From TrEMBL:
GO molecular function: 2 iron, 2 sulfur cluster binding; electron transfer activity; flavin adenine dinucleotide binding; metal ion binding; oxidoreductase activity
Entry protein name: Dihydroorotate dehydrogenase B (NAD(+)), electron transfer subunit
Residue sites binding [2Fe-2S] cluster per the record: 216, 221, 224, 237
Listed transmembrane segments: none
InterPro entries registered for this protein in UniProt: Cyt_c3_hydrogenase_gsu, Dihydroorotate_DH_ele_sf, Dihydroorotate_DH_Fe-S-bd, Dihydroorotate_DHASE_ETsu, FAD-bd_FR_type, FNR_nucleotide-bd, OxRdtase_FAD/NAD-bd, PyrK_electron_transfer
Cofactor binding, note field: Binds 1 [2Fe-2S] cluster per subunit. Binds 1 FAD per subunit.
Domain of life: Bacteria
Every FAD-binding FR-type domain range: 2-97
Cofactor(s) the protein requires to work: [2Fe-2S] cluster; FAD
Amino acid sequence: MPIQKLCTVAEAVRLNEFACSLTLEAEGMEPQGPDQFVHVKCGHSRLLRRPISICDWGKNRLRIVFEVRGEGTEWLARRKAGDTLDVLGPLGCGFQVEREARCLLVGGGIGVPPMLGCAKWTAGQSTAVLGFRSADRAMLTEEFQKCCKDVLLCSDDGSLGQKGFVDAQVRAVLEKDKNFTAVLACGPKPMLKNVAAVAAEYGVPCQVSMEERMACGVGACLGCAIQMADGTMKHVCKDGPVFDAEEVEWNV
Ligand SMILES: Cc1cc2nc3c(=O)[nH]c(=O)nc-3n(C[C@H](O)[C@H](O)[C@H](O)COP(=O)(O)OP(=O)(O)OC[C@H]3O[C@@H](n4cnc5c(N)ncnc54)[C@H](O)[C@@H]3O)c2cc1C
Ligand code: FES
């Protein structure tokens, strides 16, 4: 059940020039599984909250990891330990995955943090493919290495790991071993579309976490509606952000 409360920042860490990690004291807000999100008020003057995935959690504790994109996340990045944040959550439906599952986890850019929750949830069994624009944007890679069987890195410019996009790595992994319970992916829509296509080609079920601009975050404003393959519309905030890849209409 989502609640709204003022959460104290327990720890604020800069991960690189662009990304920050905030650990929040958040009693009663622990998610039921990976990739639910919180809706965070970013300063008094900004009416709309910003949706950020829960990257990791423990008893009475949530962690969010985000990149600075605009005014809201820029304000958030200036928070320090002891500050309070107005947080609503946990919201949405995350990845449907059993703890004993062996998954291929795929994250691109700001889609990487929620996959850490999946990696910890399926501790030690999953393989992660993580893609960044360049080495200076890499984050959380050592934490993935601690809780994944294997971690493959790639970057658009070749400055980290394999040069190229994550879907090429996903293809290389599945070519050698299709025996995964599921492919779970989070990142920009073109990346998700390509990963979904590769997973379908190799016959592995795929779930994708969709990113859409949000206003209310709770299914009340229609701001985040996306089209499904069967012609219906669904809310990313309430029905998602995670959907079966086959449900999504990719060609819009
Ligand atoms: C379910 C979900 C989970 C997310 N998880 C993360 C995460 O873990 N880490 C992370 O770095 N980012 C995440 N994002 C993206 C993050 O919400 C945006 O980067 C952020 O809202 C940008 O706000 P801003 O004020 O800095 O930028 P601005 O561009 O100034 O924002 C202006 C408005 O647009 C909305 N908006 C802008 N970009 C996005 C976007 N990509 N998605 C949704 N709303 C947007 C904002 O809510 C705001 O109302 C997530 C988005 C969604 C939908
Ligand atoms: S953001 Fe309002 S319905 Fe989803």
